[in-house]
Each structure stands twice: as C-alpha cells, then as structure tokens.
C-alpha cells in the first residue's frame, strides 16, 4: 500500500527567503516575483518524493520531511536566444529544458520533430531519422515506434564531432519556424545545427574538430553509398525496415573519408554543410531528385516568419510564411503541410511524402500563403431559442445558486478553479438573458471576488496567486496542476478559463477591466499563453505553433514522439476568450490575434484530428490518415504521429469527448460537419449501455455528450436528456442549466452554417445556423452604439449596443 502526504516547508535560497521580493504591480493587481515557501507541496508515494507548486524546478527531492529545497531548472539557451524571452513550447522545446540527453539515458527520451525529420539531441551531437521512414499504423494510432531510442544511432544516422563526445547543447536562436542549436565544450562552441519545420534540410556548422556521420554498420545490407560527386555524398540506411536516403553537401571544397565504414568524416575549408533527407521511394532517389534537392542545399535558411492578416469584411484569415537568411529573403525547397497546401494557391513540385500530418508537398519558393475561414464566436446564447420551459430553466439556475458560495469553487489550482469560473460565466449570461438580474449579478460578484483573490498577492497566503518567473518568462499560478510549473504544461487551457470569466465580468461591468483596475492582470495571462510579437516579457504565441497552425501543450516535451496536444476545444476556448476580451475592451489588435488563433485551431481540428477529407473519400493525396488506420478520429496529436487515447482514460466517451469540452459558442466549429459529427457521436457513445448519453457510466460525461449530440441531432439529444432527468452529476466545467438551455437551443438552430466559408460576416461575434425550416442569423454587439452586421449572402442584421441581435429567415424562398 502506498502512502502520500503533503508538507509545506520554508526553504532558504542563498541568503534570502523565497517570497520576500516585492511583487510587480499591475493596476489594482499584483504578481509575486517568487513562490511563497508555504505554497510548496510535496508528495511521497512508493518511496519517492515529488515536489510541486514550487516553480520550474527538479521534481524529485530526497524526501518530504524536514527542509525541502527546490532545485531550479535553468533554460539551456545562449545568445542570441538568451536575449529573447525564453521559448520552449515548440517541436524543439525539450532542448530548452534539458539541453543534450545522454546516450542510453532512460530519463531523456525526448525527440525534436522538424517534420519530415526527427532527432534526439545528445552529448555527442544528434541521432537523425526521416520521420516518414518509420511512421506506421500501431494498435492505438499512427506513430514512429523508434527502435532502440536511447542509442547513439540505430536506424537513420548520427551526427557527431571527431574531437568531442561530451558536449552541452543549447538553443542558440529561434523564429516562428526554425531553431538553431549549438553544442559547446565548456564555453567554447563546437558545432551548430539549424532545423526548419517542413524542410528536408539541416544546416550544420563545425567550429572545432571535423563533422562525422555515424551509422549502425558499415556498407552492407543495412548501409550503403548511392551518390558521390563533387562536394556531396549520398548514403542510405535500412534498419528495422526504416529506409532513409541522406545527402551531405559541403558548402566549400569537401573531403570525405571512411565513406564505406560506419563513421564518415567530412572536412571542409569553410566548415559549413547541409544535410538533406530525400523523400525517395524504397528503390532510391532518381537522378532528377538528387539534382533538385542539391540545387537548394547550399542556400541556408535561419528564419521563418509566419504572419497573419484578418480581412475585416469577412474575418477570413490569411497566413503567410517568409523564408530568410540573415534577415534577407531567400528561396528554398519548402515542405507544405496539408492545412497549408490545401488552402493555398502556391505552385508545387511533384515531390511529396506521407508524414505525420498527412501528405507533405514541396515547393520551390521564398514564401507562401494560405487562407482560413473564421467560425465566429459569441459570449453565449440568447433567451428564447427552442421550446424550453422557462420555469424549469430558472429552477436549475436556482439549484446551482442554492449551494453555499464556498462550495461553488473549492479548487486551489488553476485548472479546476478555471473550469468553475468558466461555467459560472456561462451561467451568469444565461441568467441575465432569462431576466434573473439579481442572480446574474450575484454570480458576477462571485467571479469578481475569486479573480481578484488570484490577482493580488499576500505574502502570508499559501495559494491563489500568480508568480512571474523572469528566467522562463512565464506566469505561474499557485497551486499548479498537470505540470503547469514543472513542465510549463497547459497554461492556455487553464488561463483561458480565467480570461473567459473576465470577459463576461467586463461585458456587464466594463470598468472592471480598465488599466487601473484588473485589466492588466487579465492581459498578463493572455500575454503568457498568446503574447503579441516583440513582447519584452513573454515569447510570441507561446503555446501556438505558427509554423504548423495548432497548439502544443508541453514546454518540456520530453517524449519519444516529441510534443503533443490533446484538447483542441480547450485551446479554442482560450483563443475565443481572447476575441471576447478584445471586443469588450475595444482592442482591435487583440481581437485579430484571437481570431487568427481560433480560426487556425478550428481548421487544424478538422484537418489533423478528424481527417475530414478522408471521411469525404477524397483522392488519396488529400487523406491525412493512412488507409490502414481504422478509426474515425484521433485524440492526441504528437510531433511524430497521433494516438487514439487520452492521458487519463481509454474510454471512448473520454477520448472523443475531450474535444468537446467545455461546449459553448467558443467551440462552435465542432458542428461544422453535422453528418460527420453524427458518426463521431456514435463512436463516442459506442461503449454506452444503450448507445446514448444516458447509458454512460458515472464520470463519463453524459452532459458533454448531450451537448455534442445536440449539434447534429438535437431532438434525439433532448429526448434522452428529458428521459434521464436532472439528478445526474455534471462534468466539472458544466452546469445542468447550461446543458438544458444548450440542447433546447439547437432544436431550433439546427446545424452550424458558418465556418466552412459559405457564409461570412463583417463582425467576429456573428454566426449563422440553418435548420430545415429557417436560417438563423445571430450576433452580439459589444459596442456602445447600434451596429449593422453584414453577412456575405446579403442579409443585414441590426444589433443594439450590448445586446444580441437575431434574424430568422425561411430557408426556402424567404
């Protein structure tokens, strides 16, 4: 039997007590510059002690008894990256956290995933593989089951140095789509490598010693040479069924020695090289492919800037990628992912390869752009949608409020507290729409009290405050959960709920969000997970990866398959909340940033989590899931694949339901394809006793599934909910009143019509729905004057200030 206990201990750091530094001031709020020692939590289980809520520190400690002293983790960065805000949440984030992993170290499985490549950074250099060579359909998904993952080399190759085998690795620089790493011996640089997301090239420089390429075996059945001409050498490896073809090109006169052995040395006068992975068939690359890829190999890329523009007439988002070297535009052979090439007019070559996200297609270009539609967001739903019983709805509101106010939220961590704030924000709007002004005001007052507690620092308190860490350039909430300190996980999920709640407070009390009150604290959280460019305290869009178009959840990302993201709906909630907050505080730049992040998250959900083109049985090149993958969807997207599971459960209700919570008008994209969603619901409920939410086991989210089902078949969802009654236990981020209103509303709304681009609007808080009988145009005006919302099909909707506007048009001939 294991035992666990939590202790709080004062810890001396140097000569000063942690927590004694003055807090930073942010309007009426404040942020601590260190964590109070009394906040530390320590748990002993199975003879091991683990420290949490102590910042970005080493988790393992000798014991929880006596003095518990955290060991802070330092970012592994050197200039110029050291002069920028610390970035970790990318496909290369584990290097920031861990630097080089030692060969054979079981605590360091982490790989970086510059698709179509993946690499493990080691004290000797790196192990490098072509991701498509090893990707395959496994029991739970499509992944690269790396053979002998801790070895210096097995499949693929290893990049090493002739003089040094005990090096430290650092992030030297980064951009939206690149990372440059540097290996050092002490303080002296030995070699560097620049990786580009979507590129077949790795740009290498050697400052001491000579470059070496190592393989598992010398020439034979598992390694050979297929090209040797001028300053380029081509070698193949074929280990564990994973066949790779590499070119090594020197940028100057280059001499290769030991080419037929397992350790090839390359000596070049200028010591610059490009390593190329070729998207070749098993039989090998053609002469034309070799020539085309060599032609662009000597033009380095060290920066990819990804920018966006939001069209104010349609709120469509144009995303552009620009390739540069030393700040100047350059042309390269760039790989475009499915989300990009499917929505772009970029001319493409015939070169392509199936990789982690689907078919990557290559273009000779210095830039490309693609366009995404915006689904639209709303602060909630207005009263009067659907044939519900107003008395029943009001009773459900009163049932929630009959609790002791202290019972509304007993959580002291940022996730479960945040979920409570999000659901109360939804309930407050619902109550106000139903004419329950006193109840709505009471809910808002409770939210104010809770957030203001978090937004102020008392040196004596143990929990519910925020800390700014100037080493990692991040805001930490106390207490942590799910590794928000240790690995900087999930801040966008957690803090998005806080921003959602703040947006509702400010919708009815704009003064609460002014700069001299609480607005700067709300914006501090936004800056933590989605800062604008050139913010001096936070990295740009920390959790969102501009090069790929979706978010990563982990900072440390110490995983075999790279980084990962599970709940797209919680990411969309965070970015949709940014839109709401930007609208209510009249910050257009913040609105556009949120629209970009929200639109891309929604599009990526359909592209990579659901393979909507595969569902539509489009030609093979459009299908992102391999034919042998027999699941409709996936749940966790990894840098090197995707898996049909969750971090906490194997139940289908959880695996699919995690993409639909919290369900609100910030996650309307889930309903873009109602026919697909019907099959999604059937799979999610396939383990239910009766194939309906009512047949799910306790804890399997009956209300979440009624909400999801309503977006494709509201009448069926309503019938099952009504038959079940209202004695069920809601999911932690949901209320019975909200579920009751949501399901009834969709019986009238029918299905979502916005989002796929057919109908757009010139305002971000505007959405269109369609049922068999009518089309419903719905908008909320956050402004102080009347607004006319123009829809692309010619409909105009007049909306009063601070109110919903709704127009219902007969679907046929109306």
Automatic annotation (TrEMBL):
Catalytic function, reaction form: Hydrolysis of (1->3)-beta-D-glucosidic linkages in (1->3)-beta-D-glucans
Occurrences of domain Glycosyl hydrolase family 81 C-terminal (ranges): 401-733
EC number annotated for this UniProt entry: 3.2.1.39
Tree of life domain: Bacteria
Single GO BP term: polysaccharide catabolic process
InterPro entries: Endo-beta-glucanase (IPR005200), GH81_C (IPR040720)
Signal peptide: none
Keyword annotations: Carbohydrate metabolism, Cell wall biogenesis/degradation, Glycosidase, Hydrolase, Polysaccharide degradation
Any one GO molecular function term: glucan endo-1,3-beta-D-glucosidase activity
Similarity comment: Belongs to the glycosyl hydrolase 81 family.
Protein name: glucan endo-1,3-beta-D-glucosidase
Taxonomic lineage: Bacteria, Pseudomonadati, Pseudomonadota, Gammaproteobacteria, Cellvibrionales
């Amino acid at each position: 039997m294991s035992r666990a206990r939590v202790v709080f201990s004062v810890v001396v750091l140097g000569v000063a007590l942690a927590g004694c530094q003055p807090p930073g001031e942010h309007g009426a709020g404040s942020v601590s510059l260190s964590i109070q020692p009394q906040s530390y939590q320590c748990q002993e289980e199975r003879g091991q002690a683990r420290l949490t809520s102590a910042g970005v520190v080493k988790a393992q400690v000798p014991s929880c008894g006596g003095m518990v002293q955290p060991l802070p983790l330092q970012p592994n960065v050197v200039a110029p990256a050291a002069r920028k805000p610390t970035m970790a949440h990318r496909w290369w984030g584990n290097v920031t956290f861990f630097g080089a992993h030692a060969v054979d170290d079981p605590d360091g499985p982490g790989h970086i995933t510059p698709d179509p490549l993946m690499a493990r950074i080691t004290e000797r250099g790196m192990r490098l593989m072509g991701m498509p060579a090893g990707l395959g359909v496994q029991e739970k998904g499509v992944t690269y089951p790396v053979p002998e993952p801790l070895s210096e080399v097995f499949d693929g190759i290893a990049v090493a140095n002739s003089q040094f085998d005990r090096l430290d690795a650092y992030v030297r620089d980064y951009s939206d789509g690149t990372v440059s790493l540097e290996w050092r011996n002490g303080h002296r640089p030995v070699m560097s490598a620049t990786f580009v997301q979507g590129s077949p090239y790795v740009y290498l420089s050697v400052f001491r010693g000579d470059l070496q390429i190592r393989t598992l075996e010398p020439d034979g059945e598992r390694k050979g040479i297929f090209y040797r001409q001028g300053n380029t050498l081509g070698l193949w490896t074929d280990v564990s069924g994973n066949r790779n073809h590499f070119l090594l090109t020197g940028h100057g006169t280059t001499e290769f020695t030991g080419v037929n052995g397992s350790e090839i040395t390359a000596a070049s006068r200028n010591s610059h090289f490009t390593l190329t992975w070729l998207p070749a068939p098993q039989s090998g690359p053609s002469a034309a492919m070799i020539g085309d890829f060599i032609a662009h190999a000597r033009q380095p890329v060290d920066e990819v800037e990804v920018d966006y523009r939001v069209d104010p007439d349609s709120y469509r988002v144009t995303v552009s990628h620009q390739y540069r070297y030393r700040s100047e535009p350059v042309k390269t052979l760039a790989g475009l992912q499915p989300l990009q090439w499917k929505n772009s007019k970029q001319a493409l070559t015939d070169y392509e390869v199936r990789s982690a996200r689907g078919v990557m297609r290559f273009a000779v270009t210095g830039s490309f752009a693609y366009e995404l539609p915006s689904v639209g967001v709303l602060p909630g739903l207005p009263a009067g949608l659907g044939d519900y019983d107003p008395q029943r709805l009001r009773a459900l509101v009163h049932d929630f409020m009959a609790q002791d106010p202290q019972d509304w939220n007993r959580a002291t961590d940022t996730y479960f507290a945040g979920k409570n704030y999000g659901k109360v924000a939804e309930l407050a709007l619902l109550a106000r729409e139903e004419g329950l002004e006193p109840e709505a005001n009471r809910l808002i007052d409770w939210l104010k009290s809770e957030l203001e507690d978090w937004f102020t620092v008392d040196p004596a308190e143990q929990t519910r405050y925020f800390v700014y860490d100037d080493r990692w350039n991040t805001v930490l909430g106390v207490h942590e959960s799910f590794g928000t300190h240790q690995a900087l996980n999930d801040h966008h999920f957690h803090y998005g709920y806080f921003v959602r709640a703040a947006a509702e407070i400010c919708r009815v009390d704009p003064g609460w969000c002014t700069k001299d009150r609480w607005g700067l604290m709300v914006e501090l959280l936004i800056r933590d997970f989605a800062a604008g460019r050139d913010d001096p305290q936070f990295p740009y869009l920390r959790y969102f990866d501009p090069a790929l178009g979706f978010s990563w959840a982990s900072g440390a990302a110490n995983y075999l398959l790279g980084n990962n993201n599970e709940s797209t709906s919680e990411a969309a909630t965070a970015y949709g909340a940014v839109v709401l907050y930007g609208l209510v505080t009249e910050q257009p730049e913040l609105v556009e940033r949120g629209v970009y992040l929200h639109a891309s998250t929604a599009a990526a959900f359909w592209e990579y989590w659901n393979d909507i083109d595969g569902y539509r049985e489009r030609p093979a090149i459009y299908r992102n899931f391999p034919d042998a993958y027999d699941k409709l969807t996936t749940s966790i997207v990894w840098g090197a694949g995707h898996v049909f599971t969750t971090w906490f459960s194997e139940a289908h209700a959880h695996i699919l339901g995690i993409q639909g919570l919290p369900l609100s008008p910030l996650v309307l994209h889930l309903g873009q394809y109602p026919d697909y969603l019907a099959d999604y619901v059937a799979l999610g409920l396939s383990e239910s006793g009766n194939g309906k939410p009512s047949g799910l086991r306790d804890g399997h989210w009956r209300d979440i599934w009624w909400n999801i089902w309503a977006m494709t078949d509201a009448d069926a969802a309503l019938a099952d909910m009504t038959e079940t009654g209202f004695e069920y236990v809601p999911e932690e981020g949901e209320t019975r009143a909200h579920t009751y209103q949501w399901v009834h509303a969709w019986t009238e709304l029918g299905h979502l019509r916005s989002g796929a681009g057919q109908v757009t609007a010139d305002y971000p808080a505007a959405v269109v729905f369609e049922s068999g009988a009518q089309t419903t145009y719905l908008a909320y005006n956050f402004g102080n004057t009347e607004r006319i919302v123009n829809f692309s099909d010619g409909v105009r909707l007049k909306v009063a200030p601070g109110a919903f506007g709704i127009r219902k048009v007969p679907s046929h001939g109306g």
